[in-house]
Amino acid sequence: MAAFMLRDRAQLQLLAIMVEMGLRYRSAHLLSTSSTPSTMAMTTSLILLTLFVGLPLLAILYRITLITNPTRNKPIRHGRRNPNEPTHLLICLGSGGHTAEMLAMLTRAVETPLNRSDAKQNQKLEWRDFTHRTWVVGKNDAISAARAKEFEDLAPGLGTQEDLMAGKVKKATDSGPGTWDLVEVPRAREIHQPLLTSPLSCLQCARACWDVLLRYTTETREGHAGLARQRDFPDLILCNGPATATVLVLTSMVLRFFDVRGCSTRGKMRTVYVESWARVKKPSLSGQLLKHVVDRFLVQWPQLERAAGARAEYPGVLV
Question: Where exactly are the transmembrane stretches of this chain (predicted)?
Answer without folding.
Answer: 40-62
